[in-house]
Write a structure and sequence with these properties.
It is built from 10 helices and no strands. With about 300 residues, it is mostly helical. The protein has 2 domains: about 140 residues, no CATH class; about 100 residues.
């Protein structure tokens, strides 16, 4: 009977430790989510989420494994994940399932890489294995957060053009719904993110949702202050019967002023931000130029 090598023993030990850690983490997560659901059921003042519930299909082995790390519907983890998925442009009843399946694949890949490291490098691989497992566990959520942040930044950059086009369409005699649809079509190439959100807004309005509710949904989906303010302005203008063209013109002017002040503020912070890099890069060379000749002269004097 062949003996078990030390590397194989370390790999088995890594697998057992990781399995125990994941089991405890999942048990604690499920217990906390169950506590949140119980507290929500006992508190009638908590808001009820009326969005489409992204239920798990549970199809196949991968789907069952994804169900173990999938957040429970109605908990804060589920709401945070759904918000990130909406902000990254991922919608649909299987969005949470698909993300959970990707987390399972990433975790499996991290575990396999960790075991390979242990088998290949022995004790050093045992130190590196938890790093790869942690990357596989936390990496998908971090990538989703970065994707959502980048999408929101692109939407914010496209807002000045959207305001100008919307104002021009309103002044040309189009209704608010027609103007938004035209802006969504015109921005589909240059700014597909805001075009997609406006297209969803138009679809909800044409499906029968109230104008105010549709704009509130847009404000919740897009975590951009400019969009939230625009939605509030349009809701108030449509509710009070104010002329939309004049309202948009004033809002556009105020938005440009706010953007100019924001850029001036960022420009003023550049000087303070450059202090440390300039000190680290220029101070050593300046000291070398100033003190270097004197140091050489001293060394030559004592050398003689």
């Amino acid at each position: 009977m062949s003996k078990i090598s030390p590397n194989m023993a370390l790999a088995a030990f890594v697998i057992v430790v990781v399995a125990l850690i994941l089991s405890v983490a999942l048990a604690v997560q499920r217990w906390r989510q169950a506590s949140e659901l119980k507290a929500g059921a006992e508190d009638p003042d908590l808001p009820v989420d009326d969005d489409v519930v992204m239920q798990s299909s549970g199809r196949g082995g991968l789907g069952r494994l994804a169900g173990l790390i999938r957040p429970v519907v109605g908990t804060s983890d589920y709401s945070d994940l759904k918000r990130l998925l909406f902000q990254s442009g991922r919608r649909g009843p299987r969005a949470v399932d698909e993300f959970s399946e990707k987390r399972v694949l990433a975790l499996t890949a991290g575990l396999v890489v960790g075991v390979v490291m242990v088998l290949a490098f022995g004790g050093a691989g045992f130190i590196l294995a938890p790093i790869f497992v942690g990357i596989g566990l936390l990496g998908p959520k971090m990538m989703l957060t970065a994707e959502a942040t980048g999408r929101q930044d692109r939407i914010e950059l496209a807002m000045p053009a959207v305001l100008d086009l919307l104002e021009a369409c309103i002044e040309a005699g189009l209704s608010l719904e027609q103007a938004i649809a035209r802006v969504a079509a015109e921005m589909s190439v240059s700014a597909p993110e805001i075009s997609d959100e406006l297209a969803v807004l138009i679809g909800e309005i044409r499906a029968g949702r109230a104008l105010g509710d549709a704009f509130r949904k847009l404000s919740d989906r897009v975590a951009v202050d400019e969009v939230k303010t625009l939605c509030s302005v349009l809701i108030q203008a449509s509710g009070l019967g104010a002329p939309l063209a004049q309202t948009l013109k004033q809002y556009s002017q105020n938005a440009r002023k706010r953007r100019g002040l924001f850029l001036e503020e960022k420009a003023g912070k550049i000087t303070a931000g450059l202090t440390l890099p300039l000190t680290l890069c220029l101070l050593p060379s300046a000291l070398l130029i100033v003190i270097g000749p004197a140091f050489v002269a001293v060394m030559e004097t004592f050398g003689d």
